[in-house]
Amino acid sequence: MKGRLGYLPVSVLAATAGAIMAFAPVAAVAEFPDKPITLIVPYAPGGGSDQQARRLQPGLEKALGVEVRIVYKTGGGGAIGFNELWRSNPDGYTISNVVVPNVIISSKGKDVGFKPGEFAYIGMTERALGAIMVPKGSELNSLEKFVAAAKANPGKLTVAGVGSTGGTNFEELANILGIQATYVPVSGGVGKMIPMLQGNHVTAGITASSHAVKHRATVDTIVLAGSEASDALKGVPNEPRWTYVTTWGLMAPPGTPADRVAKLNDALNKATADPMVRDALVAGGLSPMRQTPEEAKAYVLEAMKKFAK
């Protein structure tokens, strides 16, 4: 640098630059999160995933201090929404509802794109037993009558369910009972399937027991999976050999930083600890769950082993 008195020594230049830097303002690093978070629901409004998101939304917003915006990306038995999350920026600002085993079974379709084992799982929040329901007033209002009708008319009875997931779970029960029926896959979630059942467009429907509780004024539940009785569906028999269980949780895109996943998990656990949320789960025929991200990931990987075939 040359002035009127000649060149300044390098040491003077360095000292001057250091002094300028010392007084320069330091840009503050924003703490996560500092803007709204998008929560994808991969199914139509009114179903179990939508209900879960709506229950959790107030508690998540309180714990995180930002708005949580729910958006619907429906289709493909959940695959459309799961793919949306798969392609999202892994910064923690886009998360999704996840349903097990749906996220596993829907990934087996042609050219699906996402891999269920690679998502960043935040935590599972609730679970429900599988159930078979018939329209209120149906002559097949017991498991015995349903089985007898199916055996007398192989393939004639129709059973609706969500995408390929419902088909997989009904196939397991049909094999146990030794019956044949026609499965009707419904895209868009339980919110699309229940009206088919209520309108007598199908013989029966397969879904989680929580939906059976919600719609018990218009449907009758004839069997529950497993050996666990339901206080919300008293008197409904169990099929112990049927392993159908539905679990709901939240997940983030693959590669989401662990510290952000941990913060989301903390907010999730605070939201589910709310007595109003827990009471709503129990009254709705659901069992509350609380997990770390590591436990949630292990849960999904174990489920993947079951549905590997």
Which features characterize this protein?
11-stranded mixed sheet; globular; alpha/beta; 23% strand; disordered N terminus; D-Maltodextrin-Binding Protein, domain 2; single chain
Describe the structure.
The protein is an alpha/beta fold and 309 residues long. It has two domains: 37-127 and 246-306, D-Maltodextrin-Binding Protein, domain 2, CATH 3.40.190; 129-239, D-Maltodextrin-Binding Protein, domain 2 (3-Layer(aba) Sandwich), CATH 3.40.190.10. Helices cover 39% and strands 23% of the residues. The chain is built from eleven helices and 13 strands. It has helices at residues 10-23, 48-64, 79-86, 102-105, 143-152, 163-177, 190-198, 209-214, 258-272, 275-283, 293-306, and strands at residues 2-3, 6-7, 37-41, 68-72, 94-100, 120-135, 158-162, 182-186, 204-208, 219-225, 238-239, 245-252, 287-288. Strands 3, 4, 5, 6, 7, 8, 9, 10, 11, 12 and 13 form an eleven-stranded mixed β-sheet that branches. Strands 1-2 form a two-stranded antiparallel ribbon.
Radius of gyration computed on alpha carbons: 26 Å
CATH-defined architecture of the largest domain: 3-Layer(aba) Sandwich
> CATH topology of the largest domain, anyone?
D-Maltodextrin-Binding Protein, domain 2
The parts where pLDDT drops under 50 for at least 5 residues are 1-5
Classify the helix fraction into a percent range.
25-40%
Instruction: Determine the CATH superfamily of the largest domain.
Output: Bordetella uptake gene, domain 1
| Count of alpha and pi helical runs | 11
Percent strand equals: 15-25%
Q: What is the count of structural domains?
A: 2
Strand pairing plus helix content: what structural class?
alpha/beta
